[in-house]
Amino acid sequence: MTSLKSKKKDMLLRESERKLRLLSSHLLTVQERERRRISMELHDEVGQSLTVLKLQIRSIKNKLNNSQTNLKEDCVEILKYMDQTIENVRRFSRDFGSSILEDMGLCAALRWLAEDFEKHSNINISLDIEKIDNLFPRESQIIIYRIFQEAITNVDKHAHADHLSIVIMKKKKNILFQIVDDGKGFDKKQIENRSSDVIGLGLTAMDERARMLDGTLNIFSRKQRGTRITLNVPIGKKGK
Prior knowledge:
five-stranded mixed β-sheet, Heat Shock Protein 90, alpha+beta
């Protein structure tokens, strides 16, 4: 009798876990769809509006006479700021959307992500990336890209690292993705117990995305010893 109750509890638990994973997968899919929508809005609406505004300011500048030196200088400064703002909007649009994967492929997109991060932070990055573009369907490439994006964002916001190493290596049946930083590290158990913690939510999302690939995500971190994130993904698996 006790054995039957135990089996029933196990079955109910497994079913609950299955439903939870399906819900998580659905939420991530909806999130990706919303990301694409925001990316298009940024590019098509905000980006184009800023470009039109920039052209109007340039037109005003060109109409000023030589005696209006101060106004001309102000226009030059505004145009510089506009260029910077337009570039930021383009970067945010690329970060939010996944069109970069279509334009560049997975490896080049990950390389761009790392180099752009290095350019806008004080962290040195070393890259060792093997060519894997043709080994995963588009859905899986998006998931892999998002895992990397989340990992790098965590390094930027929380690690206080000086160096970040990214390795992508082809094994027999798997692809190994590894991200290692020399930052302050963290106590993983403490983070997992604080469900509302931003880092904890990020790690949970990464782990769920790894499950969608039938992959495994391992995170090793110790305070003041940095963090190592390892993702193993079977070759050719399609994102669920």
